[in-house]
Specification:
The complex is a heterodimer.
Chain A: E1 4-13, E2 20-25, E3 28-33, E4 45-49, E5 52-56, H1 59-83
Antiparallel strand pairs in A: 1-2, 1-4, 2-3, 4-5
Chain B: H1 10-23, E1 29-34, H2 35-44, H3 46-49, E2 55-61, H4 63-66, H5 69-79, E3 84-88, H6 102-107, E4 111-114, H7 118-127, E5 132-139, H8 144-156, E6 162-169, H9 171-180, E7 188-192, H10 193-199, H11 205-211, E8 215-218, H12 222-238, E9 243-245, H13 257-266, E10 267-274, E11 278-287, H14 296-299, H15 315-319, H16 351-357, H17 370-373
Parallel strand pairs in B: 1-2, 1-7, 3-4, 3-5, 5-6, 7-8, 8-9
Antiparallel strand pairs in B: 6-11, 10-11
Classes of the chains: A alpha+beta, B alpha/beta.
Amino acid sequence: MCLGIPGKVVEINDDGPLRMGKIDFGGVRKEACLAYVPEVVLGEYVIVHVGFAISKLDEDEALKTLELLRMIDADMVDMELGSMFVPDGSPAPEASPAVQPATAPPAVTA
Amino acid sequence: MKYIDEYRDSEVAGKLVEEIHRITTKPWALMEVCGGQTHTLVKQGIDEALPKGVRMIHGPGCPVCVTPLEQIDKALAIAARPDVTFTSYGDMLRVPGSTTDLLSLKARGADVRIVYSPLDAVRIASANPDRQVVFFAIGFETTAPANAMAVWQASRLGLDNFTVLVSHVLVPPAMTAILDSPTCQVQAFLAAGHVCAVMGWTEYEPIAAKYHVPIVVTGFEPLDLLEGILMAIRQLEEGRAVVENQYARAVKREGNRAAQDAILRVFEPGDRTWRGIGSIPSSGLHLRAAFAKFDAEARFDVGDIHTQEHPACIAGQILQGTKTPLDCTAYGTLCSPQKPLGAPMVSAEGVCSAYHAAGRGLAAPTAFPLYELSRPDR
C-alpha cells in the first residue's frame, strides 16, 4: 500500500475536476492522479503511491547520485594514497559479499 | 525500468559495502524506519553484509502492522453490515482481527472490495447511491494525500453514502517515542524516503539536534540503502548528527507543498494508538470537524469492541525493534504468510514476512536469496 513506484507520464488530462494522467511503469500503464504534481509535463518521471503521483523525479539529482556512487572507488584510491603518509595503524577492512541486484518486480515503499 | 535498474548495480553495491567496512571503527545500531526498506535489506542480505557489530534495527514503518486491533475490529463490524460496501487497500484484507479478517468476511458474503486508489472508492459510492461505501483510510504520510483527496472529492460531489474509517499515523512522533524509550538502542535513522517526498525533512531537524542522532533520508533500492547506511555511519564516526538527504532525486527539503496543504485541509493531528506499541501523542491524523460527516466511526454504531491479540504473537516487541522474528516461538511454525497470527507476517512491508520470504530461520527456505548463491563458501 505504501509502495511507491517510479513511472513515466505518458498522458495528461487537465479537463476534469482533478488533474489525471496515465503512467507507464516499464510497459504497464495505469491511471494516476497528478493533482499534487501540477508542474509535471509529458515524458517526465513521477513516483506513484496508491494512484497518486507524490513527487517528480529530478533527473539531474538522479544522475548526480549515480555519478557519486560510481566515484566511490576513485575516492578510495585517493584516500588510500593519502593514508600512506598518515599511518593510523587501523586494520584493513575485511572483504564482504557483494550484494546482488534485486530480481523482484519493482515494488518500492514508504 | 528507469530509476530502478541503475540503483541495483551489484558492482557498485560491492564497492559501497567495502567503503562501509573501511570507514567503520565501532559497533553501531541503525534503524531503517520503513518496512519497504526492511524488505530490500533482508531480501538482498544487505544487513548481513555489514561490518561485524553494525546492526540494522527494523522500524515500525509498516502501516498495516501498526493499525490498532481495535480499528481492525471496527472495520470488521462495519464490513459485516448488509448495507455496506467496504473498500480497502489489498494488504489489509488478511490482517487478523480479534476473531476474523476481512477476507474471511468476504468469503462469507460481505461486500468487501480491494481498491488500488481511494478515488476508486469514491467512484463506487458515486455509482451506487443505495450502498453505504466505507473506505479504510490507513497509512503514513505517503497515503494521507490520496486519502485526503478522496474525502475532499466526496465532499465536492456532495456524496452522503461515503465515509472513511481513519487510522492514520505519522513518522516523526514515532521516532521521538522510540528515542525517548529507556531501552532505546538506535543511534541513527534511515528516514523513509517517500514519507519525506510528501513532508520534506524539516520536521526531522529538531529531532536530530535534540537527541544528537544522525537522520539520513533514504530511498528503497539496494544502492540507496547502502549509501544511506554509509552516510549515517560516516556521521556517527565523525560525531555529527544532522539530517542528510540520500534520496535527492525524489525528495526536496520542503517536500510536496500541494500534498501537505491537502492533508491539512481535511485532517488534523491528534493522538493515535499504534498496534503493539501503544498510544503516542499527536502521532496520527483525524478528520477535521468540517468533514465529520465522512467519519465512519460516527456513521456506524459498532458497539463495544473487546480486542484480543493472539497470545503467541510478539509483534509489538518486533515493531519496537527490541526483538526479531527469530525470537518468536510461533515464527515459521504456528505463524506463516499462509496463516498469519500477526500483522507483520501479512503485510508486504512487515518484518516477519520479509524474514519468511528470505527463508531466514526456516528449516526449508521458501526462497533462496541470490546473494547466497554468490558467496564463495557455497
